[in-house]
């Protein structure tokens, strides 16, 4: 009986410790984002706006929309550019001095903005509709993923999507699942699937 009670106490203690740890991580993450003042956020967003738009919708086909993108994905990519594991020369100069709290705050800010386009699907008559099957398992039927570490594709710039798929296919951008998947497409299929997702959500 004593052994049973002792085991029960140990289990409850471990469970309590685990819950406290999870709670502390969540609180720490929240405090990290909250540590960026409104004034500082205004400056950070202003530094991004020239390329990505004040509302997170880029004025250029060359640069991606950020509005409505997954916060986890954006934070991972910004940190990769900052740390040099992803090479984006035009962006590295803007993020090289950002700390994790600033990156997390920026990512949450852009994730909270309305994404480009609306809720509708792209036309099934587009060529890309016939080859998007390779994308659905990660990026969703409508180009909206449920995983924080994968990007939404719906409403993204066609030219940007095409450039990234070509980079994955050539290996100049490294991402093990995407490198293999992109090599399944020829150049015309890459154009078609980029066009399809750019029209999804509009």
Spell out the key features of this protein:
202 residues; mainly alpha; 9 helices; 59% helix; Cytochrome Bc1 Complex, Chain D, domain 2; 2 domains
Could you explain the architecture of this structure?
The protein contains 9 helices and no strands. By secondary structure, the protein is an all-alpha fold. The chain has 2 domains: 36-115, Cytochrome Bc1 Complex, Chain D, domain 2 (Orthogonal Bundle); 117-201, Cytochrome Bc1 Complex, Chain D, domain 2, CATH 1.10.760.10. The longest helix has 33 residues, at 2-34. It is globular, with a radius of gyration of 21 Å. InterPro entries: Cyt_c-like_dom, Cyt_c-like_dom_sf, Cytochrome_c_Oxidase_Subunit. GO terms for molecular function: electron transfer activity; heme binding; metal ion binding. Residues 28-114, 123-201 form the Cytochrome c domain.
Quick rundown:
The chain is mostly helical. The protein has helices spanning 2-34, 38-52, 71-83, 89-95, 100-111, 133-139, 158-170, 176-182, 187-199. It folds into two domains: 36-115, Cytochrome Bc1 Complex, Chain D, domain 2, CATH 1.10.760; 117-201, Cytochrome c-like domain (Cytochrome Bc1 Complex, Chain D, domain 2).
What topology does this entry show?
Layout: H1 2-34, H2 38-52, H3 71-83, H4 89-95, H5 100-111, H6 133-139, H7 158-170, H8 176-182, H9 187-199
> Going by CATH, what is the homologous superfamily of the largest domain?
Cytochrome c-like domain
* Helicity, as a percent range: 55-70%
Count the DSSP helices: 9
**Percent strand:** under 5%
CATH structural fold name of the largest domain:
Cytochrome Bc1 Complex, Chain D, domain 2
Work out the count of structural domains: 2
Q: How would you classify the helix and strand content by structural class? A: mainly alpha
Low-confidence stretches: 1-31
Name the shape in a single word: globular
Secondary-structure arrangement, i.e. CATH architecture of the largest domain: Orthogonal Bundle
What Rg do the Cα atoms give?
A: 21 Å
Please provide the ordered H/E string of secondary-structure elements: HHHHHHHHH
Q: How far apart, in Å, are the first and last alpha carbons?
A: 66 Å
| CATH C-level of the largest domain | Mainly Alpha
Mean pLDDT: 85
Largest sheet, in brief, is: none
Total strands: the figure is 0
